[in-house]
Amino acid sequence: MKYSLVACGGTFDIIHRGHESLFKRAFEIGEKVIIGIASDNLVKILGKKHSVRPLEERFKDLKKYLEKRGWLKNSIIVVLNDRYGPTIHMDKIEALIVSEETYKVGLKINRIRRRKKMKPLKIIKIPLILAEDGKPISCTRIKMGEIDRNGRLIKK
Predict the structure, then answer these.
(1) Which of 3, 96, 124, 140 is the most exposed place for a label (fewest CB within 10 A)?
(2) How confident is the model at residue 1 (pLDDT cuts 50, 70, 90)?
(3) What is the CB neighbour count within 10 angstroms for residue 109?
């Protein structure tokens, strides 16, 4: 099924295979995709276990990535100051792409939307992408030098 407008979000510090899977699914099912990128303040609130590059750098790299894939023209990039962004304000959003890690945020978004008399979003959960060692690919693991962005183990 094709939706007119879908949403997804993240910190997008290092775009890795997990993010690629998220974007691929979003653009498969959405004519337009709102991509929320965490503000520097939201990153602090989220309490990441590693340092995160400034928003300006992450935003530029995200745009470059989307352009390279031919998706930029169908993207609306927004800065997130909270975990929900436009999903709790915009009626036109029809679906939300989440990972297993962020599924509960999607459920919370729908509770807020129902309270506001908005139609709930179709939540589409994608599986976590695993590295060679069977553990999920994450920016934390990449920054710790365990794996590369494709999930290959880095020999020490």
Answers:
(1) 140
(2) low
(3) 24
Dist. CA 62–CA 73, nearest whole Å: 13
Indicate the fold that domain 3-131 takes in CATH.
Rossmann fold (3.40.50)
60 residue type, one letter: K
For residue 63, pLDDT beyond 90: yes
The position carrying tokens 């910190």 is 11
0.85 exceeded by pTM: yes
Query: Residue 19 is which amino acid?
Result: H
Taking the CA atoms of 96, 100, 106 and 111 in sequence, report the sign of the dihedral they define: positive
Both tokens of 153, joined, read 């183990």
